[in-house]
Structure formats: C-alpha cells, structure tokens
Amino acid sequence: MNLVIFGPPGAGKGTQAKRIAEKLNIPHISTGDLFRRAISQKTPLGKLAKQYLDSGNLVPDEITIGLVKEELGSENCARGFILDGFPRTVSQARALDDILREKNIALNRVIILNANDDEIIGRMLKRGRADDTRETIENRLKVYLRDTEPVKRYYEKQNLVAEIDGIGDIPDITERILAALGV
CB neighbours of 96 closer than 8 A, spacing ≥ 6? Predict the structure, then answer.
C-alpha cells in the first residue's frame, strides 16, 4: 500500500505513520530522516542539503524531491510506503505524481489527520519544547493551512483523501486510519 499522511503540526502524524507502517509492514518515510541519512552518508544530495541547512535556509524542492525519488526507487519500498512530511505543496504533489508514474506505482490513499487548533496548541505546549510557544504554534498552524489546503484539494480531485479525526487515544486513531484503508 502506498500512502501519504499529513495534518497540522502536533496532530500526531509521525506517531500514526510509525504505527501504520508497522501494522502494514511498509517503511515510514520521513523527509527529515531522509535529510539526516543523506547528510550522514555524505551523498551528493546530502551534501547539497547540508549547505542549505547549515546556512539556515530551506532545502529547495529539487533536493527534497531527489531524495524522495531515490528512496521510492529502493528495494525498501517494493511493498509500499507511507510518506510523512511530503508533499507539502502542490508542486511537490505534482512531482510525486511524476515519480510514481515513472515507476508505475499508484498512490492508494492520502490520510489527513484533523485536530482542532485548541487541541493542537495544548498538545504542543505539553511537549515542553523551547520553540513551542503559543505564538509560534499559532503561526505554524497558519502556515500549514496556507500551504497544505491546496494540496488537500489537489488530492481530493483524485478521490484519494481520507480525513481522520486525530483526537483521542493513539490506538483508537490508528484503528480509524486502518478502517479508512480497508485493512
């Protein structure tokens, strides 16, 4: 099964992606993990990504897309995957479509974890991270809505979206996702 999971910061994407990957025996692909691995292995794309990150800049789409393309072409993904943190923009979604088409792979479902702003702010403040102030969290939520709402519409047009209530116990949310996937 080939999946994408996204949702607002603090919605539990990483937690749920790991649980779903385990249940379906597919790799959980996080773009952050891809960057860290490529940088530590000093791959050509990793070296480029490091230059941007070291200077405090966002890594350009071409590099992120290149890393995702490499990973999706690996033996690791032969039985499927769950992408977490990608795509974040419509241009990335189109690039993902191109990669999958080139590899003759279909995306089965795009899971969107929903949680209201108050729930997310509460969760993120409880994490106790230094950069998780109410103001920064609210700003991240605005950026998320601005950037990913068009991605949601893009995938809705392809009838791929499954919206999941991301509030409740972790195992219950996992079961909701599995039910939406028909497994």
Answer: 4, 65, 68, 83, 86, 87, 107
CA atoms within 13 A on the CB side of 88: 18
pLDDT by position in tens, the chain (length 183): 999 999 888 888 999 999 999 999 999 999 888 988 999 999 999 999 899 888 877 788 999 999 999 999 999 999 999 999 899 899 999 999 999 999 999 999 999 999 888 888 888 888 877 777 888 888 888 888 888 889 999 999 999 999 999 999 999 999 999 999 999
> pTM for the full model?
0.88
Residue 113, H or E segment = strand 109-114
Phi-psi region of 149 (alpha: psi -120 to 50; beta: other; left: phi over 0): alpha
* All residues at 6 or more sequence positions from 169 whose CB lies less than 8 Å from its CB, including other chains: none
Q: Whole-angstrom Cα distance, residue 81 to residue 72?
A: 8
**What's the rounded Cα separation, in Å, for the pair 128 and 132?**
7
Neighbour tally for 87: CB within 10 Å: 25
